[in-house]
Amino acid sequence: EVQLVESGGGLVQAGGSLRLSCAASGFTFDDYAIAWFRQAPGKEREGISCISTSDGSTYYADSVKGRFTISADNAKNTVYLQMNSLNREDTAVYYCTANWIIDHWSDPDGVDYWGKGTLVTVSS
Hints:
It is a single chain. By secondary structure, the protein is mostly beta strands. Helices cover about 0% and strands about 50% of the residues. The protein contains no helices and 11 strands. Strands 2, 4, 5, 6, 9, 10 and 11 form a 7-stranded mixed β-sheet that branches. The chain is globular, with a radius of gyration of 13 Å.
């Protein structure tokens, strides 16, 4: 059974940091790109970052570039998202995904597997 389990969400003040984790199981980790999406209240899901677990290439949406860093520990089948300089617009449920095809990683329709999400709330 494929599982993507997110952790690390919570309440943080504006300007603060959080690190999200995504523990993957049930599939060959190196065969999939792992991406993070988020969905804020009343908004569509947004792909914000992706990492190729085979070669370590990383990708970011403009909205998080320079503030967020994605990384992977292949030995632990875990991907991390370090989020710095958080602001209220970053408040959302954050989802970890596994994508067989990386080319359209930010397209929700291209996702093969979804985690259940973890809530990040940024207070002013």
